[in-house]
Task: structure prediction
Amino acid sequence: MADRRGLLIILSSPSGAGKSTLAKRLMEWDPTLSFSVSATTRKPRPGEVDGKDYHFIDEARFRTWVSDGQMLEHAHVFGHSYGSPQPPVQAAIEAGRDVLFDIDWQGAQQIRNSALGAYALSIFILPPSIRELHRRLVTRGQDSEEVIAKRMRKSWDEISHWDGYDYVLINEDLDETEAKLKTIVAAERLKFAQQPRLSDHVRTLQAQFEELP
Ligand code: ADP
Ligand code: 5GP
Result:
């Protein structure tokens, strides 16, 4: 048995609030974290690598993965299908490794309600203002004006689910948010339920106690 159970660390936010940036920083902080590479039917953006950023698959394959029970969760976002393949997640948490998810509120809700829900840690990232959210989407320089407008229109739908999460952070200063995120992960890892070996240790202490003269 691994020293502790792996956590399913879920980051959600409206597009542009900073979750991918924060996920990357978390991975740099702890390289043992395993990133859940989602499957999607959307086309790769310039620079995105198949198998690293996403598994880029077609709709027919996506449906097969879902019907074969290979998806831990799946949802329709911005007109495309997205889902988290289950086998790598199962393998990682059984080995005591935490898995990081960058998924929307629908996926977060499904994971919380799944058999692995007990190991889920969900964190919602809010922008400091809607104006700043728009500014970040523009300065990211990844999307056309039309796509940015679409993301902005959808952002309230995502934000409106903020209160279903374990933690909510306002990402104003990036370094500060990163520090808070690390604090949350570090504390959650120490929770009693995450440490199956604790009972063995306490039993050993009890045996030692009973041997006291
Ligand atoms: P998401 O993954 O939520 O869509 P990104 O991580 O891609 O968002 O962030 C959107 C843009 O905002 C990126 O250009 C990123 O560098 C920038 N950004 C993220 N957090 C902050 C912050 N706290 N202050 C200023 N810019 C930020
Ligand atoms: P993007 O196309 O910009 O990479 O992602 C769009 C949205 O889909 C983001 O909010 C992202 O978190 C979400 N997303 C990415 N992968 C998954 C997934 O596997 N499941 C769910 N439910 N949402 C996902």
